[in-house]
Structure formats: structure tokens, C-alpha cells
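Need residues for this backbone.
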């Protein structure tokens, strides 16, 4: 955690997460709105955005307002978002593979092999995120009957459903990354243990970050750029959690290298 190269990897991952954050949400919202025509799924995405960001009215309003404008502009915006997402998400997996190979003691793949594997992981993780959104939307539809007599219960139940589906999906994504991304044979059981630990730790770190975020005064220090800085800091902390989970799990047993 205190080695220089680990911080380099984490900042590289965080920078590419920032680049892929908005295009990914635009694509998911466009699919839910224009392809599936499912308002509950659109609401579920915005609920996930509110859960992912600090509870700051200006920050949330800026992100959601611009998402709505981007999704309303069909066609070129969606195609550009797809191209930008593929480029930036590949940038996430490249330093992540180098870091995981260092953890396990594997050699790095060639550039093109990394790109093809990254494309596969982008499709897999994007599909899992969409499935989580649709499951949450289905639950919201079932809870709409409670809006009359018990609206507060329905809102809390919707938030609980979001957590119920999003956390296992996040753990499954991490499992695929820990298992498939290193250039060598990683025991599936060890990858699953790392994914569970990292997934739970990331949730704890997220709420701790949200708790101290108002005292960081990023708005005063960075002005209009405080939203980007907020996402970069959160991406950096998340990357450290992911790398720490892999490191702790890899140390428990010897693994044969290529």
C-alpha cells in the first residue's frame, strides 16, 4: 500500500475510471430508455448514481442534469460514448493487469492480448451492470403498489433492493478480474475470496469517504473541477482496495507462475 508503483497503478486506474464513468452511464440509460422503454430501469440507474456519489445537492444535480441532456440527444452521442467507453475501459484494465501480474508474480501479456481480454471483460462487466439495473427495476415495479399506503417503506425497500443486487454483482465483477486478468493460473477459490473481501471493503471505504468528504472542501480548493476531483479520489481509493485484496489473498498460498 505504501510502495510508489502501487500508487502509480491506482492513479492510472482512477484516471481511466473518470473517463469511462459518464459514457458508461449514458449507454446504460440509453438502453433502458430508448431500447427497453423501461422508466423504472432509468430511475434505478439514477438511484445508483445517487448511491455512488456524496450527498451533495450541487454535485448530484450537475451529474443527473447532464446525463439527461446526453441521453436525450440520441444517435451520435451514444456512438461516441460507446467508442470512448471502449477506449477508457481498456485503459482501466491495462494498468490493473500489470499490477495484478506483479502481485501474483506473472509476466505481462502482449499489448494486443491485453486489448482483446479487456474487450471481453468490458462486455462481461457491462452486461452484469445492466442485469443488476434490470433486477432493481423489476423490484421497483413490484413495489409501486406500496406507494399509496406506505411510500416511505417503498423507498427504503427500493434502496435495499439496489444494495441487494449491486453488491453481489460488484463481487462477481471483481471475481472475473481477479481470475481472468492476471496472465497465469489463479485458483478460482482464491479469486472469489479476494473478490468478496474487496467488494465488502470497497463499500466500507465508500461510506467513510462520503463521511469525510464535506471536510475536504474540494469545492473551495478546486472550484468547478471539484466533481472530477471527487471521482478521481474515489477511484484512487477503490483501486487501492482492489489491489490490497489481491495482495493479501495472493500471499496466503504459493501460485505457480508462467
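Answer:
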Amino acid at each position: 500500500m505504501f510502495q510508489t508503483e502501487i500508487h502509480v497503478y491506482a492513479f492510472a486506474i482512477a484516471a481511466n475510471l473518470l473517463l469511462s464513468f459518464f459514457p458508461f452511464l449514458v449507454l446504460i440509460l440509453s438502453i433502458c430508455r430508448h431500447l427497453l422503454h423501461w422508466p423504472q430501469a432509468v430511475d434505478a440507474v439514477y438511484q445508483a448514481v445517487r448511491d455512488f456519489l456524496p450527498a451533495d445537492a450541487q454535485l448530484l444535480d450537475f451529474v443527473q442534469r447532464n446525463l439527461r441532456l446526453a441521453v436525450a440527444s440520441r444517435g451520435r452521442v451514444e456512438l461516441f460514448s460507446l467508442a470512448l467507453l471502449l477506449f477508457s475501459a481498456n485503459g482501466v484494465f491495462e494498468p490493473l493487469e500489470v499490477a495484478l501480474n506483479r502481485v501474483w508474480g506473472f509476466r505481462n501479456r502482449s499489448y494486443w492480448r491485453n486489448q482483446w481480454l479487456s474487450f471481453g471483460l468490458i462486455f462481461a462487466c457491462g452486461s452484469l451492470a445492466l442485469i443488476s439495473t434490470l433486477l432493481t427495476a423489476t423490484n421497483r415495479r413490484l413495489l409501486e403498489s406500496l406507494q399509496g399506503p406506505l411510500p416511505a417503506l417503498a423507498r427504503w425497500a427500493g434502496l435495499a433492493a439496489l444494495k441487494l443486487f449491486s453488491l453481489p454483482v460488484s463481487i462477481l465483477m471483481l471475481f472475473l478480474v481477479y481470475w481472468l486478468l492476471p496472465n497465469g493460473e489463479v485458483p478460482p477459490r482464491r479469486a472469489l475470496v479476494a473478490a468478496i473481501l474487496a467488494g465488502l471493503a470497497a463499500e466500507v471505504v465508500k461510506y467513510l469517504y462520503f463521511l469525510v468528504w464535506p471536510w475536504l472542501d474540494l469545492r473551495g480548493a478546486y472550484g468547478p473541477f471539484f466533481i472530477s476531483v471527487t471521482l478521481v479520489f474515489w477511484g484512487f481509493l477503490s483501486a487501492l482496495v482492489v489491489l490490497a485484496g489481491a495482495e493479501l489473498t495472493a500471499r496466503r498460498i504459493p501460485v505457480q507462475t508462467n
